[in-house]
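User: Modeling request: complex.
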Amino acid sequence: MQLIKPDTNIDFIGKRKIALFVSIAVILIGLASLVVKGGPNYGIDFAGGTLVQVQFAQPTDASAIKKALSDLELGSLVVQTFGDNQNEFLIRVEQTTGELQGLAQQIQKTLDTTYAKGDVDIRRVEMVGPQVGKDLRGKGLKAIFYAMIGLLAYISWRFEFRFAVGAIVALVHDVMITLGVFSLFGKEIDLPIIAAFLAIIGYSLNDTIIVYDRIRENLGKHHKESFPFIVNRSINETLSRTLLTSGTTLMVVLALFILGGGVIHNFAFAMLIGILVGTYSSIFVASPVLIFWQKKKDARSK
Amino acid sequence: MSNSLKFRSMLVLACLLLSFFAIAPTLMQSSLPQWWTDTFSPIQLGLDLQGGMHLVLGVDVDKAVESRIDTIIDQTEAQLREKDIIFKRLERRQGDRLVVMVYDEAEGAKVDALMADEYPSLEPETFSGNGGYIEKHFRLSNQEIENIKDYAVRQALETLRNRVDQFGVSEPTLQRQSGNRILIQLPGVEDPERAIALLGKTARLEFKMVDETANLQDAVAGKLPVGTQLLYERNVNKSTGATTEKPLVVIDKTVLTGDLLSDANVRIDTRFNEPYVSIEFNSVGAKRFDQITASNVGKRMAIVLDDTVYSAPVIRERIAGGSAQISGSFTSQEATDLAIVLRAGSLPAPVKIMENRTVGPSLGHDSIAKGIKSIWVGAALVVLAMIIYYQLSGIVAVIALVLNLIFITAMLSMFGATLTLPGLAGIVLTVGMAVDANVLIFERIREEVRLGRAPKLALESGYAKAFMTIIDANLTTLLAALVLFQFGTGPVRGFAVTLSIGIIASLFTAIFVSRVVFDIFLKGRDVKRLSI
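Assistant: Request completed. Predicted assembly structure:
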């Protein structure tokens, strides 16, 4: 079976202006959302706070839980349903306490008195102090930064510097769009999301390198053709691989997204966006940047 | 040629055999002989999968420095009196210095001489204070402060380890982290509240004499006689369970501390059928207890734990032998825990909870079930896609994929890696990406076939040409995973581990194993057309 006929020659490079417009538009929308919402929506890992996951034996709803907890004066209190189970809720409080009698305990006690005892099952408690949150945020940003530096060095070594520039532009593009989409959907950035971002960086690069590798090979083979032609040809030659691999990876991530359960849901969501954007960027961002770079160089040498 | 194929097949078989050995303890731990499970331990599950508690405690090291100053103050005060040096006041200031206020230069010089003799490491400074006093400052050197802080954290770690050992959790982890933080992991802990209460208690046991002359009303209003402090006595009403607090004025100076304990145990008071904690002093403590009780018969002595008075019995007679009891309307659980913390020793400084992640076992089981389901469904979809797209060659890729999963599991067991929920996600992701190498190879082979090459030749050059591309593409992902491992914590690290292992395993299976399978199929056969 073949998805892409061997002699396919879609003019991807010719559409790079449209792609540029689309990319910039999507990034701007994401940025606008970030600005409006005052920065990324950090989860408790980075912002600090207390999170309690509760399962009730009887049906209840968020407002009833809020009402039950109103006596505790917890400040900003968010209660939302969690996962596919109707009676499972996440209670999130910005407050943290270093005291031994934790917030979670108070919440449990209060809920026990409101609902029948034994009906309330606290399944997960996470408390991150503000200092730890700050440290984790620093570590996460550092990780992404160092990963980018390392990859830039590797590609510069294995290919040429301009390839590295193209790859990094594509990576920044992917991460920014994913970040924007997260902001648009109001999803929280947590530690696993940083892991997802790094996986996206790895995956997007994987895709980009395979196209680059073909460009490098074709540059050696076809001296007479123009650079943009070679780039376009290389994209077409690797197209069926790109689609197939993205397809299989997308399938498993979709399985994770649907079946993986609530705790891993946002992680899978980030991967889903990242794989789609990463595939797009290896075709429409990473390669056009090469041509742009080449044209600048030609203009300068003239 | 066929020799090499034989060798390669043997290598794959050997790897497979080793993997089964490594995986077996995970699947059926109980039915295997001891040496087997000793060589390959079952795969460890992270706290997020098996349930348990992850705590980061911050030691309040500034308090440790303050209490060191306080100790020096106590000793210095005694020595000043002993040597008849006249001074106005002794106090701790700014957390890192003690100040002796004297009336004139002559006494000041005596103070300097004494301090230089007793505490040469303190940095002296002289100021003329308000009202014509001379202030002699003695500051701990920065080096000393660092040492005290460092020692406090180390001692806290030691004490916490003692407590955890007595608490009875299998395979706990206690680790000192950067600065003054201590990481504690308690897998499968059943009562997280009790664990926190037990670990977080400073357990500073002090004996102080009660000041009967003080007016309680004035004390509560904030007017305390010099050299005394206001504490509260805890009382639990048996029938209602309500706790009441009764104010009590005690003399500041601690007559005896819990450092001099040798043992603590729970006993039951037969009269009221109530548990209490019996404590034994070591020889030094016993002697001092003997002296104190002898000279204070008829007075009340408060037993203070972390600034709460548990009881304040009247000393009826001199107590020799060095044993005492702490009663205070405990439940038997409270008495047990109190005995544990007294035995394990007090923390050198209070601790605060900086991070707490507790996952109940039911959620952990759910996560495992869902994670494994995702792997199966994802793998099934990939298998289907590969076979539809590449037909017989697809089956080769599927064989490589199955082996890949086996190798990943085996390597997790061999490296003693911890499997977390993001780690499971990493395996799922690897399943999707693992076939990528085969896709690259197969696409190359198709190209070669289109160029008119014979099947075996096309296979040969397909593998050769795809090789460097695959290496380049995978090394970059591996690089990202390694950075993640370096900077990540906890569950995220688990993701980096499985992703790295997955990449290495998939390189081996996609490039090496799949080639062996092809060669075995094609051996001695004259294939006209590749099913690809």
